[in-house]
Amino acid sequence: MMPGLKFELPDLACRPEAAIFPLIGEVELAELVADIRARGLLSPIVLHHDGTILDGRNRYAAMRAIGQEPRYQTWRGPGTELEYVISQNLRRRHLNESQRAMVASRIANMRRGGDRRSDQAANLPVGSVSQSKAAALMNVSERSVRDGSAVIERGDPKIVSLADRGKVSVAAAAEVARMAPEAQAGQI
User: Fold this and answer.
1) How many angstroms separate the CA atoms of 150 and 173, rounded?
2) CA-CA distance, 15 to 171, in Å (whole number)?
3) What is the dihedral angle through the alpha carbons of 108, 88, 169, 119, rounded to the nearest 10 degrees?
4) pLDDT recorded at residue 90
5) Which residues does 14 contact at the CB level (< 8 Å), separation at least 6?
6) So what's the pLDDT on residue 186?
7) What Cα–Cα distance (Å) separates residue 157 from each residue in 21, 30, 60?
8) Contact 129, 110 (CB under 8 A)
9) Who's near 154: CB < 8 A, 6+ residues apart?
10) CB-based contact 144:101 (threshold 8 Å)
């Protein structure tokens, strides 16, 4: 990690749909900063018509970390905001199966009001994405989506982060998340 490099989204709110994909880690952020310094910002930050970030939270954080103002463009469709975010991030992010299951769980949780642990995801719009549809969108099993939901809803923030980053399988994270909160800490 580069000295003084912070992963912050300090002054521009993000759309709830943008929060279904995890932010990149510190090492990846440092690599993104280096790439932007060498080549410039290749893709602008995509804003919703309300001025919040729809796609590009990581690029935005990298630009802010190096003190440059990013370029923006406003999303105009087609499709829904959720469809756009999935389309832009699913293949580009090279997520493993457990990470995709966590994303699918967040998509399915949108129907119930979102991830209760995340300020960004707490206000997700009410939708109608079932667990089976979310599983199909992210190419994972429905069981993986259920496991991801258990991690998000009951897991210690550390285990949620590990599953989001693909450092632990969603199935293993769900086993830990189903334990009493005090027992979870000893498993992480």
Assistant:
1) 9
2) 28
3) -60
4) 86
5) 52, 53, 54, 57, 120
6) 78
7) 16, 23, 24
8) yes
9) 177, 178
10) yes
Of 147, 142, 107, give the one whose Cα is nearest residue 128: 107
Characterize the bridge pairing of strands 45-47 and 72-74.
parallel
Query: In whole numbers, what is the pLDDT of the chain averaged over residues?
Result: 85
pLDDT at 126 over 60: no
Q: Check if CATH label 3.90.1530.30 holds for domain 11-94.
A: yes
Give the number of other Cβ atoms within 10 Å of residue 40's Cβ.
9
| pTM exceeding 0.90 | no
Task: Cite the residue boundaries of each domain of the chain with CATH code 3.90.1530.30.
Answer: 11-94
Q: How far is CA 107 from CA 42, 50, 110, 125, in A?
A: 28, 21, 5, 10
- pLDDT-derived band at 122 (thresholds 50, 70, 90) equals very low
User: How far apart (Å, rounded) are the C-alpha atoms in residues 110 and 96?
Assistant: 22
pLDDT at 78: 87
